[in-house]
Amino acid sequence: MICLKGNKINIDREYLMRVKKIDTFQIREELHLIYFLTNQMSVLEFPFEALYLTNSEDPSIIPQFKNKHIIYGINDLAVLQVGDVVLVNAQGEIIISYQRISNDNVLFVTQKCNCDCIMCPQPPDKEIKEYMKLNFKLIRLMDKKTKYLALTGGEPTLNKNNLIKIIKECKKYLPSTSLILLTNGINFEDFDFTKELILISHPDLTIAISLQSDIDEINNMMMGKAVFYKILKGIYNLARFQQKIEIRTVVTKLNFQRLPNFAEFVSYNFPFVYHVAIMGLEPVGNALKNINKLWVDPYTYQDILRKTVQIFHRRDMNVSIYNHQLCILHNSLWRFSKNSISEWKNIYLDICKRCDYKNNCGGLFTSSNDIHSNFIHPLTKEKSYSEFYYKMH
Amino acid sequence: MNKESNKIIFFKVNKELYSKDAILETGYKFTNNYYFEIKSQDKNYLIKLRPKISCINVKNIKDDFLNELIDQQLRFNLNQKTHLLREMIIKKAFHPFFNKEEDVNE
Amino acid sequence: MSKYTLMPFRFKRITKDEVFVNNEVGEYIFLPNEIFNQLISLKLSKDTDEYKNLKSKQIIADREIIFNIEMLATKYRTKKSFLNEFTTLHMVVPTLRCNGNCIYCQASSKALNDNQYDMDKATAKKIVHTIFNTPARAIKIEFQGGEPLVNFEIVKYIILYANKLNVLYKKRIEFVICTNLTLITERMIKFIKKYDVVISTSLDGPENIHNFNRSLKNENSYKLFCEKLNLVYKYMDIERVSALMTTTQKSIGNFERIVDEYIDRGFHSIFFRIINPYGLARQKLFEMEYSVEDFFNSFKKGLEYILDLNLKSTFFVEEYTSLLLTRILTPFGIGFVDLQSPSGTGIECAIYNHNGDVYLSDEGRMLGEMGDKKFLLGNVHENTYEEIFNNNFLKTITANTYLETLPECCDCAFLPYCGADPVRNYLEQKDIIGNKINSTSCQKNRLILDYLFKLIKEGNENIMDIFWSWITRRTLKEIKLS
Questions:
Q1: pTM of this prediction?
Q2: Torsion sign (Cα): A123, A126, A132, A138
Q3: Residue A57: what pLDDT?
Q4: Residues of C in contact with B67 (CB under 8 A)
Q5: What 8-state DSSP symbol labels residue C274?
């Protein structure tokens, strides 16, 4: 999450606030931004609280600020837009919880998890935070025109009642927002819970399930627990209700060789799946800790990746490649590659400045600055596929 | 009318090694080109194969029969091991709430 | 040594070094002999790739046996989905009269001036009511004969009455008319187009083959056919017209030329059909005797020719291959009546004769016309829907055509891709189960499936792309990765 910092005045607890208005004024050739934030959820709600953010180093020059809650001297303030929602804490830190124009907005349902995935980018903190109250407020502060919202964690299905409440809130306050639930699917083994969730009848809910292999040994080794068959049972339960399902798999040294077998397994056993996402590793958290067991240069598995995508594509199943750079992807796979990395953790290498396809490419994770393919290189428009690939074969 | 062959192939098959079912299945497979007869004789079955038309080459017929018999015996054994599971698959396919976990011998 | 359980599977030795193994729903794997031997003696090591692949395909399981069973059961149910809807294909014979003289005719057709073989309105109305009793939500009403155009009045009556009745039932209806086209007029075409009727016609090949197989009195059958086809195209989309061919001695060795003829006439698909041993065919057997091997050799050459055309950007499908491939490569069932276990006859399709007699298949009806009414289910004037479709005879046929319980079929590795043909067995061997070795449909399917699996195993990217373009009905360009 993007976190802004500044100096606080009159702030001694947490505030969840939406940016209502941005004023600018010029003082001696310096542009001062004043952000007016409220926690007002609907126009009819009174009273509500207000909070001001400014990039000004000296708050006394702004007369409205007397006796108000203020954070001043914020450097990257311009990244915030009207409609965005921030969580301001007692230390004066500003955590951006929601961005109106973003397609990558996320709701953390909980930090707890029922697995211990070897490649988890966000393993649970020692200090487990409680999100529910915040989430209910956040949902009501979000713009109704928000297109997509992901529900994640930890494992969002851990507290079944909480999840159901959140989805109901989303249905009520964000009826035209597409929801995607990022889950390991284990709790859907519980038929009654699955039924209860489906009975909410959310108009556009996709359940994205992580599955790492076609066999239990590899999947369970990667997820740290014997959960393979539970996940399959969960998928079946969801399918019984014709729920839209996505399957996500992370490609690592441990499972890349069986990717084609995995594709055949998924396409034969779960032909009803709406979308399959083949994801590159994010080398952060547990993934970073275990990088030696997990890292395989994506460039080296292009033949296998192509075969895998071909299996899905031939069967007219939707498949996407996430978190891979265009220069290391086989040319025939470019059309499946999506710009999947959230803007706030998205970078390009120095070498990418010379690449003609930089604007089409999703780039890398910030955490991939030191851990990425050895074959990343700039492409020129005359050659429509990777020079390196051509030379290698 | 084709001249009926007088080339008859006799051989014995040990009852302890092969089941009657497997032998009958194997014999059935040869009935397009041969007349097949089976008799019981102490510890063996006596197999008789007579070609339906004279021009058939009977040189390797005993070996072919025995090879096929091994596969049929194998199928018979596999069926013994897996037929319950097969029945469960079909029962569950058309009666999804059927639940007979107790019956499965692992 | 690893501990694992063998799940139900079937096997076939395809070469001297390899065994073809598949599970209850036809998911297959090729194993070297040595690995197969280890597998069956429970000595296969769990560190091998083959162990993992066999587990992935549920040919072995080392835990959660019950859930593996459940997964196989779900897939099995999907494969047998034709059972869900009961009778979906309803064939109607508006007349036995026909102007044609096809040498293999199974219609036992009557002369053009013999009106007693026409269906009357009362029978037609009763038939439509019987059809609508089916629980199927989507039905196909297919007109056969004789030549349906000879009694086009009844065809129109049935279509209009069915649409009227459907306001109440709200089923999805598709109408098909199987016709030789030679008697079609502009008025008929306009009606056919107005009511979205699909035309299924017969084209046996270029002029010499077509005229030999399908002669007309005092006319050049082929020339008349082409003329009428052009007339149809003036009003109707090519997509609404399809053709199939029947193989005779004249066709053997000429499948490539037949395909060329189809392309010239604007068709996008062909169905290479082996002859049916019924009707006039049996009396003239000596004139067109060819072996199943002959048929297969022509089939193979024809298929190779078609694959080459697809590679050169002409989308053209061989329909029987496409059906088999859907069976082999996808988890889905198919709706083709002749390739089902249990047989689709009677339960998936039924045919209503001009006099209201209901038979379980067209071949059964032919047998009835020749005097043997073994496959008669009832008559719409005398029997209720329940009496026709829920009688013991139909149940016996269904029980006796479930391949999983029949000798030889039950162990055959091609079972998941094959189907029963009880009427053909009865005709060839006087027994609806029949001895497979002598069964022409078994021989044919074995040869074709052996060949298709050889191609699949070779895995040539272009050929596999073409196969998938047929299965998913997309162009080769869309399927190809680059």
A1: 0.92
A2: negative
A3: 85
A4: none
A5: P
Q: Looking at the complex, does the CB of residue C399 fall below 8 Å from at least one CB of chain B?
A: no
Query: Closest by alpha carbon to C175, among C201, C155, C147?
Result: C155
Q: Search chain C and give the residue with CA nearest A336.
A: C481
Mean pLDDT, rounded, for C436-464: 93
- Nearest CA of chain C to the CA of A217: how many Å? 9
Which subunits count as partners of chain A given 3+ CB pairs below 8 Å?
C
> C349, C351, C443, C363: which is closest to C398 by C-alpha?
C349
Per residue in C383-431, pLDDT (tens digit) is 999 999 999 999 999 999 999 999 889 999 999 999 998 888 888 778 8
Report the C-alpha gap between C437 and A1 in whole angstroms. Answer: 71
Per the CB < 8 A criterion, the answer to whether A320 and A277 are in contact is yes
Q: How far apart are CA C157 and CA C171, in angstroms?
A: 18
Q: Does the pLDDT of residue C139 top 90, yes or no?
A: yes
Do C482 and A264 make contact, defined as CB atoms within 8 angstroms?
no
Q: What is the DSSP annotation of C29-73?
A: EEEEHHHHHHHHTT---TTSHHHHHHHHTTSEESS-HHHHHHHHH
> Is C16 an 8 Å CB contact of chain B?
no
A229, A236, A332 member nearest C481 (Cβ): A332
Could C9 and B81 be called an inter-chain contact, meaning their C-beta atoms sit closer than 8 Å? no
pLDDT tens digit sequence for A39-79: 887 777 777 788 888 888 887 766 667 778 888 888 888 89
- With beta carbons less than 8 A apart as the criterion, state whether A52 and A7 touch: no
Closest Cα of chain B to C54: distance in Å? Answer: 16
| Assigned token pair, A155 | 């494992």
Helices (H) and strands (E) in chain B, counts: 2, 3
Q: How far apart are CA A227 and CA A220, in angstroms?
A: 6
Reading the block at residue C160, the tokens are 């209009």
